[in-house]
Amino acid sequence: MPQLNPNPWLFIMILSWLAFSLIIQPKLLSFTPTNAPSEKTSMETKTLPWPWPWT
Fold first, then answer.
1. Taking the model in full, what pTM does it have?
2. Count of alpha carbons within 13 angstroms of residue 27, beta-carbon side
3. Which phi and psi angles does 17 have, rounded to 5°?
4. With bands split at pLDDT 50, 70 and 90, how would you rate the model's confidence at 15?
5. Is pLDDT of 1 > 60?
6. Where is the stretch described as Disordered (predicted)?
7. What is the mean pLDDT of the chain?
8. How far apart are CA 55 and CA 49, in angstroms?
9. What is d(CA 55, CA 46) in angstroms, rounded to the nearest whole number?
């Protein structure tokens, strides 16, 4: 079974993860989001217990 031979695929996977981790990811993380989260307080809702018919 040629799928079980990790020789070419392991090297390709390691190279692609290194390229992603060292080159692509820092470039993507340098972008600032256009819609920054605001300091708006969330409104808390009061939940009522469920009235179970068999109790």
1. 0.44
2. 5
3. -70, -35
4. very high
5. no
6. 35-55
7. 80
8. 13
9. 22
Torsion of CA 38, 44, 45, 49, to 10 degrees: 140
Asked if residue 11 has pLDDT above 80, the reply is: yes
DSSP secondary structure letters along 30-47: TSPPSSPPP-PPPPPPPP
The number of residues in the chain equals 55
Residue 14 token pair: 């390691």
The HSE-up count of residue 44 (CA atoms within 13 Å, CB side) is 2
Which tokens sit at 55? 């109790």
